[in-house]
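Predict both folds.
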Amino acid sequence: WRVLAIYMILAANLSEQQALKQACPSCGASQLCNCSSVGLDFIPLGLTAKITVLNLAHNRINDILSQDLQQAVNLRALLLQSNEISSIDEDSFRSLAKLELLDLSNNSLAHVSPVWFGHLFSLQHLHLQGNSYRDLGESSPFSSLSNLSSLHLGNPQFSVIRQGNFEGIEFLHKLWIDGSNLSQYEQGSLKSIKKINHMIINLRNGNIFSEIVRDLLHSVTWLEVTDIKLPVEKKSLVQNSTLPFRIQKLTFKEAFFTDQTISRAIVLLKEITSLKELEAIDCVLEGKGEWKTKEITRSGQSFVETVRIIKIIIQNFHLFFDLEGMESQINNLKRLTIASSNVFMVPCNLARHFSSLLYLDFHDNLLANKRLDETICEGSWPSLQTLNLSQNSLKSLEQTANCTSRLPKLNNLDISQNNFGEIPDVCEWPKTLKFLNLSSTQIPRVTTCIPPTLEVLDVSANNLEEFGLQLPVLKELYLTKNQLKALPGATPIPNLVALSIRRNKLNSFSKEEFEGAQVGAVHLTLMECHRSLVVSMICVLVFLVILLLVAVGYKYHVVWYVRMTWAWLQAKRKPKRALPKDICYDAFVSYSENDSDWVENTMVRELEQACPPFRLCLHKRDFVPGKWIVDNIIDSIEKSHKALFVLSEHFVQSEWCKYELDFSHFRLFDENNDAAILILLEPIQSKAIPKRFCKLRKIMNTKTYLEWPAGEEQQQVFWENLKEALKS
């Protein structure tokens, strides 16, 4: 008995492992089991302790049962996103004490139960977004997840956050909440989390924004808010809160502002003394710049040091004011980015008050030389060290250089991707300039306009044919994508450390070109070093790919499928219904060769000897010799009043039966008539029908069929029903 019991256990385990391998071929000896996008309706059997990563995403799984994951005790990552999961047994995850990542996003969970996570002591990353729950319950579902590092939750139906929902979580590196329809937030709900490095919340209800900010003052380092329509908030954001605050960075994405909300927000955010960085990305400002500058000035200095504005849309941009009166608010600003926002100038008076600004980025705007003279006037930007004016509308390199020469501390200038076209022989630059980017500026040559003080110079993508400048302190030179036929001389640039000269027209090197200092490091691509070898390898690889495609095509009859598709397309262009005079048969019979004895000796005799007799089309007897078989199938179906399918286990294993079913589907079922007659010669299990017979599954679910009975009396009724169906 013991031997028998052991044998039964081993046989069961072997059977489960075979079932797992059949459902997920990648789940062999590997620790990674990838079962994504294979149409699974349930978690497969046979999961063992050797699996550490299980990917079941993008399937049709509805339920997670207690025993499904019982043996997978060493799982580190479980991916179940994008299924149809609506129920999870309470102890489904009980054995997963080592699990670190659980993704249940984009399913159909109507509630979140704390029991699910009760034994997930090692869990660090939990994704619950995109389900259908409206809240997190009355208590915290996460109370046992002391090691949780990132949490993503919420959905379009998520509407309530209650006190206690986040009890048990002390630290999160990232918290992401989809609260696009959040309508109720109980004050203090997020206070239980002591520290959050980065929180992202999608929030359309602006009235909840201030309540959440008050709860996060002492815990969040970086708060990112998306989709918000900022309200005119009257109450203080720091009321009854004690210093010090933790929040240092606030980002708005795809937000909507007005002049009134901007004015009030500037005043209120000053109260958060820890706030050092503000961002606005892809936002909309409805207004003309009529900000309440007096109220803003009375509220005192701002503590913000960095402002980044990317792709802001000002709906009445042509009416926008010059922000006169805001001068007192920008004295302490150190870094400013306004990119991709159609900026064409900064008033001189305003520019002179950026007394502490070290970094200014105006890339991808509309700055032209005429307005640049106003933007960089005498006394403006007195502390500026780095300036980015790339991707603007600058046309004159000489005027651009003259404007920047007014910046006494500038050492890094990027004016790439402007269309200068010409370069003068002499230019006036800041005496402190060390880094200059002139790439993609259409300059045809380099002249002594380039300042000799440079340590880094980038003139890539300019179609330069030579480079012979005297730059005694230059350390890095970038000449990529030009037309150079010779290396630049070593003598004029004695301190050069790095040289990039890719994608030029260098064919040979002379000995003299290498008589400078020893080369420390050269970074060349494989193509540049071994072009002929790489080309040969590519040719061999292409040949092997073609050979592989030919082999696969031969094995899987690709040529036949192409010809079959062409025949079908030709057939689709014919009239949908054959004329009555073209109908030659009462029925076209599709059957497996293994069922030919019943078809030819029983059914054909019964129908063709009836009174009146029926005319049947059989491939053995009626197909035209020498004609391509696909054309025979199509023509026979078109010349038949009905299509009769003799279904059996042999039928669903036959490729030819599938083709006949496909063509009859194209010509008959698409017309929504009753031209198909199904005969079930023997019971067929639904699981036994291969997936490639998807049309047969559909037909059997939507059409009634005749089942061949065992008794003679029932057989007589069968024949009568079949004859009636053929006559209809």
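Second protein follows, with its predicted structure tokens after the sequence.
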Amino acid sequence: QKIVQLAPQKLHLKLRPGVPETFSVNFRRAEGYPVDLYYLMDLSYSMKDDLENIKKLGNDLLVALKNVTKSVKIGFGSFVDKTVLPYTNSLKSKLENPCPERTEKCQSPFSFKHVLQLTDNVTEFELKVSQQSISANLDSPEGGFDAMMQAAVCMEEIGWRNVTRLLVFTSDDTFHIAGDGRLGGIYLPNDGRCHLNKEGLYEKSNVLDYPSVGHLAHTLFASNIQPIFAVTTNTLQPYQELSKLIPKSAVGELKHDSSNVIQLITDAYNNLSSTINLQHFKLPQGFDISYHSLCGNGITLNQKQGQCSGVKIKEQVTFNVTLTAKQCLETKQSFQIRPLGFSEELQIEVETLCDCECHDFTENADYCSNGTGNFSCGICRCDATRLGRLCECDRSQIKEKNLDSTCRMDNNSLVCSGRGKCVCGKCECSIKAHGNFCQCDDSSCPRDGGEVCGGNGKCDCGICECNEGYSGDACDCSLSEDFCKTPEGVVCGGNGTCECNKCKCNVGYSGKMCELCITCKTPCENYRDCAECKSFGTGKLKHTCEESCSMTQIKMVKSSYSSGKDWCHVQTDGGLLTFVHEEKEDGTVILTIKEPPEQVNPIPIIIGVISGIVLIGMMLIIVYRVMVEVYDRESSTALKKKDRMSSGKMLIIHYIKVQPQQSLIQNFRMIMIPIT
């Protein structure tokens, strides 16, 4: 059940001061390496919409990680900020419900809350997360550093295993750092210890300041935790700068509602796990160390740390580590070399040889190539006919006294190019290397699609020899034109060239077959000017029509003429132009132009319309005068009757009915009674 990727894992070195010693460290990336992922979420009010998506995250996240490894556990924690001014409103009502709107319900603010220990139970993860509610604080920066520090140092509470540890940090704002706590009267520096109570709350948040970037980076490195910062666009740059200061960390752009967080985590994990960083720590004083990285894509010399990128599963990389003692040690010392992000490490114990043990003389010692030399003071003193550290070489066959010099291409290169060992002045190369100085590595050629020379050639001394039909540094360029031809057999539609079996379109063209052209003129636009000048004698070419349109012939047809082709309809100075074009093999263009419809004389229509309007107006006037005349006559008759009535004596009575209290006139009547 134990996965071993690093070899060796223990080493004992005896060094003489000033004499460098080189040893190899191999790393072979295993498939399905276990993963622990702790999801640390900002629950400030601006992350309200994100929380709803995270509540549904558990199963999808576990499925995505199980595509990488069968052994995966996930946990959950959240953070806001310190619960004192100026970070959080300290009014009692706001501490109980910090939401901006009183009608909304938010949980009380807190610095960091450990919600769920690492588990492989998806149902429990979703249940715990679904119980979370949003909170709020005052200022924009959040207390994420406090949360990361507690997640890194509270190993038992979080449940970290000795596997790949990922800390996913999601937020939409920046972070407080050491010194910001003084604004709230918090001056004690962060002590880097676990301070979680039984409820999982960070209980020293209002006592200890935020950690510094250096302190947090050191703690994450010591705990072997790889942070993944999933942040929104507005805060992407600060976190990218922060990532440069934290070893083995990654940054991804989070959508405003965290809908892409699973893809972001998957991409970041693949990037981190395929990059192998070999670093030493606790190196004793008085030692120099350097790394030569022998990666699948090349060699890097004299680094302060070993690094290989793009390492694939089951691919092995080698780091040659050179250690030099500059002084004598009084006692044995030890240090470790570890690939960042992995639990394995190489334990190295070092002692210095500052004295000669000359009492161990052995004549014709078996140690010295079966008795070809005497063993004295820790070294072989060879016979006159032998050479080499173990007297393994025949002197008569060696020209140079310094055997290693014959195993170097030049004074600046490594012995056997770092890919083999020098035996009796000749290089014995590793499996993948060959050449007199092991200078050729058949695995160091360029790759395409993860394969050396793209699988379309063979590697010869770092240079790809491509199979027939392929070219390019990585044999990634196919010379075939099968994918460049249209169904009619035209390469790239005649609007581009075929390179590596892909169309490279001319300027202005796009598409798989260069069939799209946004800036190009349509056939209607191309032949419009010739059609206009030939038919109407107008347009841009009216003065040079014969010369400019010498290869163009026109054919006039009735406006009722129809054909199966699409007609061009263009508005010109001479009127509406309708035509269709036909290109002949000799280059001649036949334009079939519809005659414009016969012009209708508008004068009769105009006269008719005006006459109609005048006639209707006159009729309306006549009707009006008739109605007025009838009314006048009726009024005259009524007045005559009234005059006849008023010639007799009349008794006129007026009476008014009034409410006594309200003094309101209820009725008014006038009665005229004739008196006989």
